């Protein structure tokens, strides 16, 4: 079975690359028909220089949708072959403008005729196919501008992971994992403080016995995330000791834990969730904002040195 038939759309990028290589190779044969010593990859840049003289590299890059570096390299190749020249702009000496040389200008009429012939042949080619590839490419580029391929893959991956993540209640045998997950991130960015050790070494006494809750995230049979709800008063819980293993970060597990903690707080009758963090923890702060938390100045003095931001989520 052909590789692309076997893999299917998962190899879309590779399939397009194969088509691109096929058409580029055949484009070289087209230039040979017209006895033009010209690289197919030069054409977009050369075309803009020929039809819109006085453009600089940045203009050309934006016009043809290529990177500044790619256009710069093409310009260097065209200069080397005597087809374009680079000069300082008359109105802005800091920018170099690109124009055709005499040799490039002499080549342009032949390229224009070749382009017209290629246009006619390409239209005939598209007419032979069931689907208009040109229009399909436009649709594909538009769709990818709205959401990148990486974003689409991440959404699929996160949905799959979400189905494999199990939110579990705390049990005494999970105390080592609860401690390890939190000590890991605290030591990476700060120092472990006395209140940390009390809660992590004796969670039953300092969290559960005080009316709090501990939730754990299990993925592929491993405890990879944890968070706690600390009872503050009749209507308020503190979201604390949230941690996700480095190996499981980026999978949306922190968000799942946060959603589960919010749902648990509501079930317990809470009307407010409170948390303390540090602005150095950018991904964590972004997660809290995504969950609906907002900065507050109404919190009590924190027992932690590392705390420099307090946030709350009203559940009413």
TrEMBL record:
HTH marR-type domain mapped to chain residues: 9-149
Keywords, comma-separated and alphabetical: DNA-binding, Transcription, Transcription regulation, Transferase
InterPro entries: Acyl_CoA_acyltransferase (IPR016181), GNAT_dom (IPR000182), HTH_MarR-typ (IPR000835), NAT_camello-type (IPR050769), Tscrpt_reg_MarR-type_CS (IPR023187), WH-like_DNA-bd_sf (IPR036388), WH_DNA-bd_sf (IPR036390)
SMART domains from the UniProt entry: HTH_MARR
Gene Ontology molecular function, alphabetical: DNA binding; DNA-binding transcription factor activity; N-acetyltransferase activity
Short name of any one Pfam family annotated for the protein: MarR_2
Annotated N-acetyltransferase domain residues: 176-316
Residue ranges the record marks as coiled coil: none
Protein name: GNAT family N-acetyltransferase
Organism of origin: Hymenobacter metallilatus
């Amino acid at each position: 079975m052909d590789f692309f038939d076997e893999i299917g759309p998962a190899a879309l990028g590779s399939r397009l690359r194969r088509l691109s290589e096929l058409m580029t190779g055949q484009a070289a044969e087209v230039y040979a028909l017209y006895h033009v010593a010209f690289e197919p990859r030069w054409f977009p840049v050369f075309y803009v220089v020929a039809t819109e003289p006085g453009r600089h590299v940045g203009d050309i890059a934006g016009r043809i949708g290529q990177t500044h570096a790619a256009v710069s390299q093409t310009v260097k190749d065209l200069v080397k072959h005597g087809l374009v020249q680079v000069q300082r702009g008359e109105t802005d000496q800091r920018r170099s403008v690109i124009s055709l040389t005499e040799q490039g200008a002499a080549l342009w009429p032949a390229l224009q005729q070749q382009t017209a012939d290629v246009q006619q042949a390409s239209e005939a080619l598209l007419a032979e196919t069931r689907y208009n590839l040109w229009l399909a490419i436009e649709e594909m580029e538009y769709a990818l501008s709205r959401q990148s391929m990486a974003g689409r893959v991440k959404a699929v991956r996160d949905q799959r992971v979400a189905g494999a993540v199990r939110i579990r209640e705390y049990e005494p045998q999970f105390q080592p994992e609860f401690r390890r997950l939190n000590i890991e991130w605290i030591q990476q960015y700060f120092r472990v403080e006395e209140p940390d050790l009390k809660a992590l070494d004796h969670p039953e006494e300092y969290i559960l016995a005080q009316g709090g809750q501990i939730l754990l995230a299990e993925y592929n049979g491993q405890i990879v995330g944890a968070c706690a709800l600390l009872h503050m008063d009749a209507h308020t819980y503190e979201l604390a000791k949230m941690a996700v293993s480095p190996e499981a970060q980026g999978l949306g597990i922190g968000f799942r834990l946060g959603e589960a903690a919010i749902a648990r707080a509501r079930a317990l009758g809470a009307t407010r969730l409170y948390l303390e963090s540090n602005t150095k923890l950018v991904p964590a702060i972004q997660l809290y904002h995504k969950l609906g938390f907002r900065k507050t100045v109404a919190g009590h003095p924190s027992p932690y040195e590392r705390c420099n931001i307090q946030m709350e989520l009203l559940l009413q």
